[in-house]
Amino acid sequence: MSIQFAYYPGCAAQQVQKEADAAARAVARELGIVLHDMPRSTCCGAVSLRETKPAFSLAVAARILSEAEESGRHLVTICNTCLQTLTQANHRFKNEPELLEKINQVIVQAGVRPYKATINVYHLLWVITDQLDPKTVKAKVVKPLNGLKVAPFYGCHNLRPAEIFDSKAGEEADHLDRLILLLGGRPVAYDGHDKCCGFHVMLSDKVEMRSMVAKNCLNAKDAGAELMITPCTLCDMSMGSFQKPAEQVAGKVIELPEMNFAQLIAVAFGLDESAAGLDRLHVSPHAVLAKQGIR
């Protein structure tokens, strides 16, 4: 038995964070989740478009949502920012029929079918932890984490504003914690797990961004974390690829392996390392995994 979704990986997963996309697809196959590509979809526009051209942003979201709806499937993504952007637009479309009508008038002129607001937007993490029987996930674990101390970094765009999300959000979010436990690890509680990764000020204030990365990573490591996972490709970029620059700002060595949640699942499922994309990570997790007897 399988469940099917229109799959919207987001821009980062198709370019700089390809390992997250590869791992997501591999894990989905193992769990019977069918991910259908959306060949006509574009960038969601993210926060910058929402702030500078809000009407345009809604039209872009409606076009993406319409493509998923046309396929008869709900939409699933692996990027927190895409999740928030599309969910916020979808929330408005479902609750503001006059707005939906106006936006449909725009996208129809571009040759897009009108969006009827009949679908939902999910994160793949939510699908795995909320829609699958935990026993199904646990049965796939062939390399349990053996108590590995894992810091869950939720980020912010899958948490807030809580009222727009159908799944647990805000202070109630526990998806990563539950996943870590299912895989045999130990979730690490620390200050910073629900903070911003700094991605959205990467260009406007690089010192502040790198300070945020350092603070989040060091808080996790000080609490005993041996590894960090996130549910977002943009958080992956910040907390992983910007660790070395963050060390220069903080004046401290961090050396905390960071990976996407789907990569950690792939490791626990015993999937090929190329599928998990471990070789693309900026801080290698191999020593930590080997120490726990996972590799």
Please sum up the structure shown:
The chain is of the alpha/beta class and 295 residues long. The chain contains 15 helices and eight strands. It folds into two domains: 3-123, Glutathione S-transferase Yfyf (Class Pi), Chain A, domain 2, CATH 1.20.1050; 134-291, Rossmann fold (3-Layer(aba) Sandwich), CATH 3.40.50.
How are the secondary structure elements laid out?
Elements: E1 3-8, H1 11-14, H2 18-31, E2 33-37, H3 46-52, H4 54-70, E3 75-77, H5 80-95, H6 97-109, E4 121-123, H7 124-131, H8 134-139, E5 149-152, H9 175-182, E6 186-187, H10 206-222, E7 227-230, H11 233-241, H12 243-250, E8 258-260, H13 261-268, H14 273-276, H15 286-291
Parallel strand pairs: 1-2, 1-3, 3-4, 5-6, 5-7, 7-8
What does this structure look like?
- The chain has 295 residues and is of the alpha/beta class.
- It contains 15 helices and 8 strands.
- The chain has helices at 11-14, 18-31, 46-52, 54-70, 80-95, 97-109, 124-131, 134-139, 175-182, 206-222, 233-241, 243-250, 261-268, 273-276, 286-291, and strands at residues 3-8, 33-37, 75-77, 121-123, 149-152, 186-187, 227-230, 258-260.
- The strands form 2 sheets. The protein has a 4-stranded parallel sheet. The chain has a 4-stranded parallel sheet with strand order 6-5-7-8, sandwiched between helices.
- Helix 4 crosses helix 5 and helix 7 crosses helix 9.
- The protein is globular, with a radius of gyration of 19 Å.
- The mean pLDDT is 94.
